[in-house]
Amino acid sequence: MLHQPINTVTGENEYTTTSTYIYKLPDWFIRETDMTASGGKPCLVIPIGTVTDGASVPWWLWSILRLRPDGLIRAAALTHDPLYGQRGWVYGESSTKRAYFKNVEPESWHLSRKLVDRLFLHIMLEAGMKRRRAWRAYLGVRWFAKLHKRWSV
User: Fold this and answer.
1) Burial of 56 (0-12, 13-18, 19+ CB in 10 A)
2) What SS3 class is residue 6?
3) What is residue 90's three-state secondary structure?
4) Burial of 91 per CB tally in 10 Å (0-12, 13-18, 19+)
5) Which residues, in sequence order, are CB contacts of 28 under 8 Å at separation 6+?
6) Hey, how many other C-beta atoms are within 10 angstroms of the C-beta on 35?
7) For residue 131, with 0-12 CB atoms within 10 Å meaning exposed, 13-18 middle and 19 or more buried, which class applies?
């Protein structure tokens, strides 16, 4: 089972990480991005103090979709939000951005929205979310971004 980040509620639909969250990237992701490991397993690091809205699921859909912003979707949302916020640009450890890669070369990456969304789906499934529920959340993210013209890649 995937380790979930520890967040505190800091506002309405707002959560802040209370510790740095490190997610070890899956092999398929490393292959598709042509990353080269340098000094350990490639990771995505979300620094302490990162603010997220959790899963951006309206409260009236929680019971229909069986998703809560603070449930099994937490790790997926915490990694997905900064990648969207950075429009797919992720940098190395020297970065001051919200999310950065550790143990990879080269220093910067531009990820497609589709790849970021696939990682979101992968993390939900790794966390133990039921496949049907995870797919609903994944399709919701794909649809919402397209509808609101967020990050056209």
Assistant:
1) middle
2) coil
3) strand
4) middle
5) 122
6) 17
7) exposed
Task: Say what the pLDDT of residue 126 is.
Answer: 93
**What average pLDDT does this structure show over 61-80?**
71
Give me the helices (H) in 18-130, please: 27-33, 62-65, 74-85, 113-126
Strands (E), the chain: 7-11, 14-17, 21-24, 36-37, 43-46, 51-52, 89-91, 100-102, 104-105, 108-110
Q: How confident is the model at residue 118 (pLDDT cuts 50, 70, 90)?
A: very high
Tell me whether residue 121 is exposed, middle or buried, using C-beta atoms within 10 angstroms of its C-beta: 0 to 12, 13 to 18, 19 or more.
Answer: buried
C-alpha of 97 from chain center? 14
The residues that bridge with 77 in the sheet, in sequence order, are none
